[in-house]
Design goal:
With 569 residues, the protein is of the alpha+beta class. The chain has helices at residues 21-38, 64-71, 79-91, 96-115, 120-141, 150-165, 174-186, 263-286, 300-308, 319-329, 382-404, 414-427, 434-445, 447-455, 460-471, 502-520, 529-538, and strands spanning 16-19, 49-52, 58-61, 143-144, 198-204, 212-214, 216-220, 234-236, 239-243, 291-294, 312-314, 346-356, 359-367, 373-379, 407-410, 481-483, 490-492, 499-501, 524-527, 551-552, 556-557.
Length: 569
């Protein structure tokens, strides 16, 4: 009895713990599976994914961040790759598939070392050193577009936008949309480059070429009353009044009570209400405004009142549109109509209401302050227009980043191959096991040109051999050569204007390296089913709650919506 040790209980009963090498291998396999899910979407010949949910919503996209977000990945380690894809999307706008593929490939290359018994911290140390060297070399390979005149700069930015759009659903009209994106960004405040000042409106119908850019603000006609049709639909140099107040009679609350001692008092109350609304309307007219926009409702009385006096009005204007009108015209949103100053009103060269497909749009053109633009997208299917919007968002982000960090690198896998060659040469100067790990990092970088060739339907091994031979030439003659997805050969991608901002590549390598190192540093996972059950009880709408009692339930993966699971149709 004296030799027995007392049992020490640290965790609750039912707690599941996984640790050691099997746990690390399991996490690596999960991340590699996520990378494989988006692998085929890379590049201008990448395929699209169709994703639909239990509510019948269908999304067609080849954007890595969009796909991973819609897949609702639940594996705790694999969620790291979803996070870096979202981070890449919000930081630079493009390269979401690239960063996911790189992280997955780094982990795939490190898996063999982990299985052979190498300590993960040794691999992490080498990967971080390799990532740091790669980022520094990208900066050395980049070419600046600063110091050029505006036309040359526009042309360079259009090439960057086209490189992004070529891999999207709208790749067939990449040149058309690239020019539109560059023009939209050039209309912004050059210091702030606020993305919110570019509005993208979608109108079903027509073809892609019917899309157009409004040098100012455009928004769909808001809900209106009968008198709206009697209002003028175009102005030259109008005065614009922006409001954040209601211009209609307010209905009483359900529990409102008014006690009267004389029937005549009732009429006095009614007259007071009418007088208040008429005073507001007269105050708007007395400002000399031709156009009145409000974020809150403009009632039928106000609509007819303004129409009789030759004014245009619109209520329930979206806050984003109202703010963009304010930025473009120089107006200030008013919370009262009393003592409105002339300087608080804005103006533009022309205002008109036009028909776009089945929608009517209010367009403010030739604004005094060119700090906003609106892109009106046309297309046949709703899913197509939504994907076109995501594509343009990526291109606009790229142009915006290229204006702030004016350096570009060759695309098409050229930079990745050059970095791989550089790291292989550097590895030969390092003694010890680190040489193997940096070589593995260098090999992982080749996944980009390999996948570009695979997705284009060419022999990736043949293409990579040609690229390795070209990049190994003395004097760096072939450092700008990448995959030619049109012929299946190799080509000087920089000379052929396949450019991307160096920030995209730097951010992708940094994020992928950090994600891989994070996964490799985890050696134990603790899961407490009881706490999950408590959370589900507190949040009945959560996954696996309600009558289902967890994942599986009565229909596959329960979502806590009565007796029906995702698996039952």
């Amino acid at each position: 009895m004296n030799g027995m040790q007392p049992q020490i209980i640290l965790l609750r009963e039912g707690t599941d713990t996984s640790q050691g090498k099997p746990q690390l291998i399991s996490n690596i396999n999960a991340c590699v599976a996520v990378a494989d899910a988006v692998r085929s979407t890379l590049g201008p010949r990448g395929m699209d994914k169709m994703i639909y949910d239990d509510r019948g919503n269908t999304t067609i996209s080849n954007d890595g961040a969009t796909i991973l977000k819609l897949l609702e990945i639940v594996h705790p380690a694999a969620k790291t790759l979803v996070s870096i894809a979202k981070s890449q999307d919000s930081e630079v706008g493009d390269g979401t598939t690239t960063v996911t593929l790189l992280a997955g490939e780094f982990l795939r290359e490190s898996k063999q070392f982990v299985e052979d018994g190498v300590h993960p911290q040794t691999i992490i140390r080498s990967f971080r050193a390799a990532g740091r060297l790669a980022v520094e070399h990208v900066a050395a390979l980049s070419a600046s577009i600063l110091g050029k005149d505006e036309q040359e700069k526009r042309t360079a930015l259009q090439k960057c936008a086209m490189t992004t759009l070529n891999s999207k659903l709208v790749g067939g009209e990449a040149e058309f949309f690239a020019k539109m994106c560059v023009d939209a960004v050039f209309n912004l405040d050059p210091v702030l480059l606020d993305l919110k000042m570019i509005g993208i409106k979608k109108v079903t119908g027509g073809c892609m070429r019917d899309s157009f850019l409004v040098d100012g603000v455009g928004f769909k006609k808001t809900f209106s009353y009968a008198g709206f049709e009697q209002q003028p639909k175009s102005f030259s140099n109008p005065k614009i009044l922006l409001l954040n107040i209601e211009l209609e009679l307010k209905s009483e609350k359900d529990n409102a009570e008014v006690r009267l001692t004389d029937p005549g008092q009732y009429q006095a109350i009614v007259d007071a209400e009418w007088n208040i609304i008429y005073q507001k309307l007269d105050a708007c007219i007395n400002t000399g405004a031709n156009i009145v926009l409000s974020r809150l409702p403009v009632g039928d009385l106000a609509t007819q009142y303004f129409a009789d006096r030759g004014l245009f009005c619109a209520g329930r204007v979206e806050e984003g549109d109202l703010l963009r009108v304010a930025k473009a015209t120089g107006a200030t949103v008013q919370t009262t109509v009393s003592n409105v100053l002339t300087t608080s009103m804005g103006t533009c060269a022309t205002f008109e209401e036009v028909q776009v497909g089945n929608e009517r749009f209010n367009l403010f053109k030739g604004c005094a302050l060119h700090q906003t633009s609106t892109i009106v997208l046309r297309g046949g299917a709703e899913q197509f227009i939504e994907e076109a919007e995501r594509s343009l968002h990526d291109a606009i982000m790229i142009v915006r980043r290229a204006m702030k960090n004016a350096s570009v690198v060759a695309g098409g896998g050229a930079v990745d191959m050059e970095l791989s060659r550089y790291l292989r040469e550097h590895a030969r100067t390092i003694p010890g096991k680190s040489q193997l790990f940096i070589n593995a990092f260098a090999k992982a970088l080749e996944v980009i040109p390999r996948q570009l060739a695979d997705n284009a339907g060419f022999d990736a091994t043949d293409v990579l051999n040609k690229l390795r031979q070209k990049h190994a030439l003395p004097g760096g003659e072939g450092k700008l050569f990448g995959v030619d997805v049109n012929t299946g050969g190799i080509v000087d991608t920089f000379a052929n204007f396949v450019w991307e901002p160096s920030l995209v590549k730097i951010n992708a390598i940094s994020a992928a390296t950090e994600a891989a190192c994070l996964i490799l540093s985890v050696d134990e996972t603790v899961r407490n089913p009881k706490s999950e059950g408590a959370d589900a009880a507190m949040n009945p709408g959560g996954r696996g709650a309600g009558m289902m009692g967890g994942r599986g339930g009565m229909g596959g993966r329960g979502r806590g919506r009565g007796m029906r699971g995702r698996g039952r149709r």
